[in-house]
C-alpha cells in the first residue's frame, strides 16, 4: 500500500550538484525542501582509504548498480537495442553528491557562441553550413544573461583559475582562488603552444590551490596533488563537491530533509500542474507519495528524461516526423588528441583531476570555418591527473596487448608518455535521441531508457582536425614519436570516453522548440522544473559541470519566484 506523506514546498529528485544548489537556495529563502536520493549518504570521512584503484576506478564503487537500472543502446533505428550490462563509455554516479563526487573538477563556462550557435553560425557562414539533418538552435538565453549565475557557482565552489583566455566571454569578477601549480609538464605545453602562436592558460579547477571559505561559510581545503580524483571522492575535502558545499548549507537551515535509498519512479500530474512524486524505498520495497508545491528533477540526464517519459509529461520526439521535443537533442562528445613518447621521465603519477593547461584557439568559432566541413571545435589541453598503475599501460602502435613485450613497454612508458587531447563539441542530429525501450524494464518494473546514437560526419571531421592540431603541439613539445588518435567511425558504448551526456530536456524560447523555458520551468507543467545538462541544445568543447551549476542557480531563482507568484516565469 502506498503511503502519502505530508506536503512540502519543494521536492528534488536527486541530491547532486543541481539538487544541492536548489536545496541550498530554496531553504535559505525559507522554503521547506525534501531531497530524494536513491543512493546512500557519504562524505569526506568515508574516503579516508580511497586510494584503491581497483575498488573505485575499475569496479566503480561510487557508480549506479546496472543490475537494477541501466539503459539500452543502438547505433541506429534498424538495430536492436540491448542493455548496457556494465559501465562503458560513461559512468553514472549514485549516492549523495552524484557525479559531482567522482568528477575531475574541470569547471568551464560555455562560450557566448554556444548559447547563440544558430544565430551566429548563420550570420557568419549562411544557413546551409550544416545539412538539415542537424538540429541547430539557440538556447533561449545568452551568455551575458547567464554570467551572474556562472559567477555565483564559481564563488560557491572556490574555483582556482586565471582570467587570461582571449576567447571566452567577459567575466564580472576574477576567479576566487589562484590557479594550481604550473608543473614541468604544463610548462612544456605552454612553451610549445606559445611558439605555435596560441594562447595557453591554466585550466579552471575545482581542486583548489589554497584553502577557501565560500560565501555560505563552507570550508574547502587545498589540493594535495595525490592523483586520485576522477572516479574517487576526495579524502581531503579539497575537491569541491556538493556534499562539502551546498548540501551542508541547506542542512544548516533546518529546512532540508534528505531521504536516502529513495528511488522516484513517477512524477504525479493533474491538469497543468504536478502534485508530487511516487518513490520506492530500495531497502524495504515500501512505496511513498511525496506531495509538493514544486517538483524539481535534479537527477542525471538520462533519469530526468526517463521520468518525464514514464510520467507522460511532454511530447516525446518522433524522428520520422520531427515532432515532439522530449528526448531530442541528445549529444555526447568526441575525444581527439595525440600521444607523445619521450626519452625523459616525468612525474606523471602525481597530479589532480583538473591540473592542466589549455588553449581555446580551436574552440567554438574562435577560428575560421569557411573552408571546413564542420562547425565548433574543442578545448585542447594537457592534464596531469595522476597516472595510476592498473589502467595506465601506454605502448607504441602494433605492440601486442599482452605478454612480455606489452609489459616491457608499459613499464618503460609509464613515466615517458604525455598526451594532448580535446573535448570536442557535439551538434544535435535528428537520428540521435532518447526514448523508452519497449522490451526491457528496470528492477521496479519501469521501462528502461533507450539511447539511439552514432557519430556523425561533423564528429568525424572535427575529430580528425583537432587530432592533427594536438599532434603538432606534441611534436613541438619534443616527443621523439607522436601518435595521433585514430579516426572515429561508429560509436561504441565501450570503452570509457566521458560522462558528458547532454540533451533530452532542452531549454528554449518557445514550447515548440524545447521542453523547458530559460528558468528550466516545464512548458506543460508550471510547477515542474527540470535541471541539468539535459537542457543543453548541443554539447560544447568543455565538460558541462560549470554550465550546469550556473543553470541550477538560475532555476533556483525561478523556483523561489514561482513560490511567491505562481504562473509562467517567462
For the terminal residues, how far apart are their CA atoms?
A: 40 Å
CATH fold assignment: FAD/NAD(P)-binding domain
Which class best fits the helix and strand makeup? alpha/beta
Rg (CA only): 23 Å
Question: At the first level of CATH, what is the class?
Answer: Alpha Beta
What's the shape?
A: globular
DSSP strand content: 15-25%
Number of helices: 12
List the helices and strands and how they pair.
Elements: E1 3-4, E2 8-13, H1 17-28, E3 33-37, H2 53-58, E4 71-74, E5 82-83, H3 99-102, H4 112-115, H5 117-125, H6 143-157, H7 184-195, E6 201-202, E7 212-213, E8 219-220, H8 246-251, E9 256-260, E10 262-270, E11 273-281, E12 287-297, H9 301-310, E13 337-341, E14 356-359, E15 378-383, H10 404-413, E16 417-424, E17 433-441, E18 447-452, H11 457-476, E19 481-484, E20 528-530, H12 545-565
Parallel strand pairs: 1-12, 2-3, 2-12, 3-9, 4-18, 12-20
Antiparallel strand pairs: 4-5, 6-14, 7-8, 10-11, 11-12, 13-16, 13-19, 14-15, 15-16, 17-18
Describe what is shown at a glance:
This protein has 570 residues and is an alpha/beta fold. It is 23% helix and 18% strand.
